[in-house]
Structures
1.
Amino acid sequence: MTELLTSAQMRAIEAAAIASGMVTGLELMERAGRGVVEAIFEEWPALRAAPQRAVVLCGPGNNGGDGFVVARLLKEWGWEVALFLYGDPARLPPDARTNYLRWCGTGEVRDFLGEIPEGLFDAGPSGDGVVVDALFGTGLARPLDARVRARLAEFRAQGQFCGLHSVAVDMPSGIDSDSGRFLGEDEGWSGVQADLCVTFHRPRVGHFVGEPSVGRLVVKDIGLDGIADRMGRGAACRESTSAADLICRWSGDLRKSGGHKYTHGHALILSGPPGRAGAGRLAARGALRIGAGLVTLGCPPDAMPENAARLDAVMLRPVADGNALAELLVDPRVNAVCLGPGLGTGAREMDLVAAALGDAQRRAVVLDADALTLVARHPELFALLHEACVLTPHAGEFARLFPDIAERLAAPAVTGPAFSRLDATRAAAARAGCVVLFKGPDTVIADPAGRCAVNAALRERAAPWLATAGSGDVLAGFIAGLLARGFSPFDAACTGGWLHVEAARRFGPGLIAEDLPEALSVVFRDLGL
Ligand SMILES: NC(=O)C1=CN([C@@H]2O[C@H](COP(=O)(O)OP(=O)(O)OC[C@H]3O[C@@H](n4cnc5c(N)ncnc54)[C@H](O)[C@@H]3O)[C@@H](O)[C@H]2O)[C@@H](O)CC1
Ligand SMILES: [K+]
């Protein structure tokens, strides 16, 4: 797992490092600037070979301080560097001011809001270059003012037009680093995209949730490793209210070693009426492929012929109503239930949800799709949710289940730190009293105790092919299968989500939902299982 930090945590770690005497703020700034230059050369190796053009935009805080270091180092490489400052140099914080003065010894400081010199964006002597955005980083507290925004957009557009690469220091300016959201009334403003974003020590939450608008993210070490451990994690991270883990692998044991089929659990997937049972079958196949020892599809009696014709390894049982389900659940070996995909939202289905949630054993239950609609509609079902449940809503279902939380998330973010998808998912999990997996390219998983993880399918891990009919049904099945195997609800949701993206990536373009369970075996093999 990679730790995602909030800006408050990052500030606390930096302050602790400085207070301990292990490093000064000025040294950290120098390392940060050096890290940006290294990252530029690593990203575009040709730039290292010959002098180029850099346009560096510095802001009024320490992000601007990093910009002065970058400008100086590139100039030392022989580059042509033009530097623009937004703000009053006399009011720069001390380390930024020191670097401003060092820069003044070698180059000119232009006014960010003043005239843009002719030919500024012409490629450098060797035909290439960068525009470096060091206006605001983790200190952004409010929306950029209109003039700054317009000017930043102009720099970016002209730089892009002239073929210069855009580099953001720490965060593209204008984006809140705790939520990844653009601060301001009109979210989605595209003026702050960056080809490359270079951050320090650990990524921030806002690099992985929201709309980070970053082509590539590089995290540079600035010598802060171990500081949180040395001072006790709790102390360094006390400020945190919304940090999370980025899921970079699975948690729990995915291997099957010895035992018989019942050792690996028995998942029961409930499906809908004839002609609508495909979604349930997809979930069932997902549960089986991910390693549940046994999977049974429970369907209405009149859907038996259709399902019998379509299933082999998945077992089939008629489940007419809630009573029939309760009878099935007398068998303690059935240890995970999944309801929702293609289920329907009538009286039978309401009974099924009530029977699954009201079960005295408090079995693990995944609720998806139609089951979420039922839980949203009927407060008495919502009240039955318990800690062994996993809810897997997409944005629409989330809004039906938690309208006030969704409304808060949809409202424009006007101050930092803004209400984030992490905050929303945490609030939802606390209210529901169970694990919530809030789907999206930036899927967030939270448990009622506040534990939170992000399963990001962004940038190099993008899996656009997952936006296909039935893909969510397979995910529900994956999670049910892992629950059957004994994973905790939180680990099942994290691992199921992670494998879902991996399977899609391994299969690639042309993916349909049926391919997802099949791609798992390749993923498992690659993982050495
Ligand atoms: N925290 C750390 O460990 C390190 C931080 N460094 C850099 O320092 C940055 C954080 O520095 P700061 O805390 O000074 O924050 P910033 O440099 O991001 O900006 C803060 C300044 O901008 C003002 N401001 C905030 N929003 C504004 C808006 N919309 N319009 C106009 N002014 C606005 C604030 O009042 C403050 O003066 C990081 O992003 C990073 O680039 C690095 O030097 C290395 C180490
Ligand atoms: K920036």
2.
Amino acid sequence: MAEEVLAFRNVTLGYDRHPAVHHLSGVVARGELIAVCGPNGAGKSTLLKGVMGLLSPLSGSIARPDDGRRIAYLPQAAEVDRSFPINVYDIVALGLWRRTGLLGGVSRADRERIAAAISAVGLDGFERRTIGTLSGGQMQRALFARLLMQDAEIILLDEPFTALDAATVRDLIALVERWHGEGRTVLAVLHDLELVRAHFPRTLLLARSPVEWGETRAVLTPSNLIKARHMCEAWDESAHACEAERAA
Ligand SMILES: Nc1ncnc2c1ncn2[C@@H]1O[C@H](COP(=O)(O)OP(=O)(O)OP(=O)(O)O)[C@@H](O)[C@H]1O
């Protein structure tokens, strides 16, 4: 059995005592490629933030590697500040900062890796362009190049292909498959179920609570998708954590 890299133990995550993800249990083994699916507001982004440690569980726990450098996170495009005056080369180089520190030197080998990452995402010639001048697809390519630099064991992607053209999706999916081939663990929040069926062997279907987690074709069934929609529609936005959690 492959090594466990993440374990959710009856975890509830939320904001201001209002749960957004409820009672999730399960383990992720090293090298798994997992899609996280569910309706709007199902708690998918919240789950990734919990895995990243940006949110502490209201109850239960998430076991993850102690060394934060082993996890990389790509937030939703809307959360990335494109007005920041930084160029493509430097934003890709930022993938190194956890290793070098913000003021650490960049070696010749690092510079070669940065150039290779920019090339791998098809952005040769864009090195000096500030990120505010990039198209949405070019920006996402730059952020994938930064992920390449991070060299993380666990990679979390929040809606990485939303609003991208087919060619960009194809190129970025190829990188995800490359990471999978290298034995890295990838969790991606996705809305395109055809894309999930074609490329993601495992799926967690979330609707505030887990609906099902397992092999993609067994999870993304019409009945599970209807159940997920109903569970989200029935959710009481103002509910507090359960009694048992409050007592904990
Ligand atoms: N910072 C926040 N403060 C308070 N509530 C939040 C915050 N972020 C998310 N929520 C709430 O948590 C719930 C789950 O949101 P989340 O963004 O995790 O869902 P999602 O499945 O990623 O949705 P989408 O597919 O629309 O991106 C929603 O009710 C949302 O309003």
